[in-house]
């Protein structure tokens, strides 16, 4: 049976980054990566809808150890996919990937000091063991997006498409398109499709906050070629980190002020007299759900040009050639796109057991947002909700490396987070009020009330905690018997 020191699940942005950190900081550990699909890139390989791009700047979505050097701060999907693949090749972690390996479950045995992992490879069951299990599969379900009940959709004569499964041969040139949704995917699709479609309507039940950002970072553009990359990249990264934190903290502490600033920003980019309060004023406060960023205000430009429009209403039903709204209005359509969200699937849907006892994720507490109470030698990567995913993914991978080196240096074979007596669960690990979170809230690990069991969504604070803080706080360790030696 194959055994590795560290088994990574997922070869996307997080998994490749984790493998690179291990290569850099724990070069003597054996590593394997199991990837359910047949390509590197995760989300950035799966999503192929028109205009797919990052909703964070690449100076923070890029890896800390490998600078993003292209001019676009908010990059398109193919560029991000190639960046991840180039990184895998540069650090030779592509050699560690086993494609088409879907992980089904894993069992920890304290007596054997290892995980036994079950996967399915091309229909054949495969088993291997590892000393440390590192799940980097994100929290979205890859095989099926979320589509709500759409009354009468069977009556529509045209194609109904979910962005997660975009048909390569879909021709929307000169067609009337209705995009149902108001989140990051919808605001990306609308301006992109409007370039060639006859008209694109974004149909939303309720608005989202939308903020225009420069597609090219002005400071990066100014200093490119004047400073070496090793100095410029960290500078841009921290500048954007602090900007993100300022916007988030302002949203939390002065939501009325932030609402006003966002409203004024939208008004400046929309035609005079536009119904801003109907189409761009959500009922919730900023950052209760993820904010939508649009590079160079492309959504607003599409609305100004008349190539796109927004309808804020509810669906009453479908006809053969469009959608009827509760207000009585009708939206003509040749194609309907359901940008209605994603389904959550924590740790890729795999099962976990510890010494024969099943682990119920919803009943665990998250330790530093990356390990689970009572689960030895296990980590998962969940990025920030208020900043770039990779900022947290980098910190998690660096912490895993620190922990592994601590185990070896002290003759220990396992580390298990254990909350102090009286630690109470509070909110889910992903504490947004978005529909995709609320639909799966019972399946998510919970947070405690204080560090290291409380997730603060604060990168500078987490740098101190995870790069420079202790690795043994609220952690139970088991020592390796002298005659056995360490596998960790």
From TrEMBL:
Pfam families: FMO-like (PF00743), NAD_binding_8 (PF13450). Its cofactor is FAD. Belongs to the FAD-binding monooxygenase family. InterPro entries: FAD-binding_MO (IPR051820), FAD/NAD-bd_sf (IPR036188), Flavin_mOase-like (IPR020946). Keywords: FAD, Flavoprotein, Monooxygenase, Oxidoreductase. The keyword Flavoprotein applies. It comes from Actinophytocola gossypii. This is NAD(P)/FAD-dependent oxidoreductase. It comes from the Bacteria.
């Amino acid at each position: 049976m194959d055994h590795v020191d560290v088994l990574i699940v997922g070869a996307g942005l997080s998994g490749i980054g984790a493998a690179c950190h291990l290569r850099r900081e724990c070069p003597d550990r054996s590593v394997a990566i199991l990837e359910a699909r047949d390509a590197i890139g995760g989300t950035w390989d799966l999503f192929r809808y028109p205009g797919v791009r990052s909703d964070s700047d690449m100076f923070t979505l890029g890896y800390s150890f490998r600078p993003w050097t292209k001019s676009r701060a908010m990059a398109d999907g193919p560029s991000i996919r190639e960046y991840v693949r180039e990184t895998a090749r540069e650090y030779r972690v592509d050699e560690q990937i086993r494609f088409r390996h879907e992980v089904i479950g894993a069992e920890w045995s304290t007596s054997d000091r290892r995980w036994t992992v079950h996967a399915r490879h091309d229909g054949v069951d495969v088993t291997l063991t590892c000393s440390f299990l590192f799940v980097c599969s994100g929290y979205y379900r890859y095989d099926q997006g979320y589509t709500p009940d759409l009354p009468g959709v069977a009556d529509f004569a045209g194609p109904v498409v979910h962005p997660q499964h975009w048909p390569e041969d879909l021709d929307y040139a000169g067609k009337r398109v209705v995009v149902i949704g108001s989140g990051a995917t919808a605001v990306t699709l609308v301006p992109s499709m409007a370039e060639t479609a006859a008209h694109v309507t974004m149909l939303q039940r309720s608005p989202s906050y939308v903020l225009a950002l420069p597609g090219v970072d002005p400071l990066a553009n100014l200093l490119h070629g004047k400073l070496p990359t090793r100095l410029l990249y960290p500078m841009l990264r921290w500048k954007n980190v602090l900007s993100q934190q300022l916007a988030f903290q302002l949203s939390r502490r002065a939501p009325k002020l932030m609402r006003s600033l966002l409203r004024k920003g939208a008004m400046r980019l929309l035609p005079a007299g536009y119904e801003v309060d109907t189409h761009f004023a959500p009922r919730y406060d900023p950052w209760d759900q993820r904010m939508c960023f649009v590079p160079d205000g492309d959504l607003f430009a599409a609305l100004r040009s008349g190539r796109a429009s927004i309808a804020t209403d509810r669906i009453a039903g479908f006809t053969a050639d469009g959608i009827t709204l509760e207000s009585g209005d009708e939206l003509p359509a040749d194609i309907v796109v359901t940008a209605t969200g994603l389904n959550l699937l924590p740790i890729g849907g795999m099962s976990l057991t510890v010494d024969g006892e099943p682990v119920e994720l919803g009943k665990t507490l998250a330790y530093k947002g990356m390990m689970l109470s009572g689960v030895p030698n296990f980590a998962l990567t969940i990025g920030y909700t208020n900043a770039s995913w990779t900022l947290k993914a980098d910190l998690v991978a660096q912490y895993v490396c620190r922990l592994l080196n601590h185990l070896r240096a002290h003759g220990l074979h396992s580390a298990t987070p254990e909350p102090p007596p009286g630690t109470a669960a509070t909110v889910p690990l992903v504490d947004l009020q978005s529909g995709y979170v609320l639909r799966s809230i019972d399946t998510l690990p919970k947070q405690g009330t204080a560090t290291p069991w409380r997730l603060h969504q604060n990168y500078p604070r987490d740098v101190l905690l995870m790069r420079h803080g202790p690795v043994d706080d609220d952690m139970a360790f088991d020592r390796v018997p002298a005659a056995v030696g360490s596998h960790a």
